[in-house]
Amino acid sequence: MRRHRLSKKVKAERLSAYYRVPVCMIMRSNGVADPKDLHGKQIVVPERYYCLLQDGAVCDGDGCPEKAYGRYVVKKGDTIFDIAKRHHTTMSVIVRLNGIKDPETLKAGESLFVPDGNTGGTVHSVRAAETLKDLARIYGLDEEKIREYNFMSEKENVYPGMQLMIPEK
Questions:
Q1: What is the mean pLDDT of the chain?
Q2: CA distance 109 to 147
Q3: Is 50's pLDDT higher than 70?
Q4: What is the residue-wise DSSP string for 1-50?
């Protein structure tokens, strides 16, 4: 999370546009009900998907993903691969959605966010020389939609063997 001092002249909406984070997420991460309560204060600017990391609550403001998420409690012997397969998604989505630094360190009893199974889509394994632009053209989607669906930053590139979830149109 980033910190920012919001001057009295700057509205939360402008900060929202600058960081590409919905106002409702900024409000939630700072524990305020009214954006005016943020003025003149040092505030926390959450990561783009902060709304998904708050006990299953999904922000209903502009810019929040439309997908729904559930919880999964890790069982002894579970792997990220098993969990992803069980929930019809990719390992990458599980790792990014939960901010997992080392997929080998899963512990039984740990609670993870997982797609609820109604998200639809296809798993695509990236081939050599394929780009995100190629995939967007093949599936008739915007690159940004594929990035968002897979929790990828604008700077991240695809690589051969990477598995991506391709949303339905």
A1: 78
A2: 30
A3: no
A4: -EEEE--TTS-HHHHHHHHT--HHHHHHHHT-SSGGGGTTSEEEE--TTG
Query: Contact at 8 Å (CB) between 94 and 100?
Result: yes
Average pLDDT over every residue of 145-151: 85
pLDDT in tens, 62-100: 444 445 567 789 999 999 999 988 888 888 888 877 778
**Local structure of residue 129 (DSSP, 8 states):** T
DSSP conformation class of 54:
B
Q: What angle do CA 160, 165, 169 make, to 5 degrees?
A: 125
Assigned fold of 2-53:
Membrane-bound Lytic Murein Transglycosylase D; Chain A (3.10.350)
The closest alpha carbon to 92, from 164, 13, 18, belongs to 164
CATH of domain 69-115: 3.10.350.10
Q: Which numeric CATH code is attached to 122-166?
A: 3.10.350.10
Measured in residues, the chain has a length of 169
Pairing, β 122-125 against β 111-115: unpaired
Mean pLDDT of 3-24: 75
